[in-house]
Give the backbone structure.
Amino acid sequence: MRASKGLRLIVFDCDGTLVDSQHAIVAAMAAAFEELNQPPPGPNAVRALIGLSLEETIRQLWPQGSPAEKEQLIAAYRRLYFEQRRRGAAPDVLFPHADTVLRQLDTAGYLLGVATGKSRRGLDAVLTSHGWRDTFFTRQTADGHPGKPHPSMLLQAMAEAGVSAGDTLMLGDTSFDMAMAVNAGVTPVGVVWGNHGADALYEAGAKVVLEDFRDLVPYVSERWPAP
């Protein structure tokens, strides 16, 4: 399915941009390392890599692990993360005003998308838990693409929406998101409520860094009058 001519696309990162999942990610990662009898990485080391694919995250956190050991760790992390979700021990909490802003933009006629290092299963769980199953026109995950900052996810999102790079924004909290946007030729918009600071976002190419989710509405309205 393709969008009508003239529409604009706003693509969101998930972890650290839409939902505050850092505590769940850090806890599951520590538990996975411990299950393999390895010393867990520090929380800051894990937070710095949120947004990358799980495979790349493990590669950086455990460079000395063999390929087979890394696969074991990846499997353990996925299992433990979803066990947390089933227990409700570490829910993915929305950042303030995220739901309101998404619904405002959707109502105004903008196309919304997601480009995330999460798996399809993980993204679907987040969208279902927050009633967003029908909110996003395009959903790109690490299952079918190279990890950030490769532009593949954004290129596919634009192809599905039928929009050009000039009609696309990428909203994210990490330098990986900004670099992906630059590589895809779309406008990078950073946010300060996630995992990387404003300086890192600007250095990676952000054109603007928002301090409040509600700031996205006037920014988009000024850049693009509602379709």
About this structure: The CA atoms of residues 136 and 201 lie 24 Å apart.
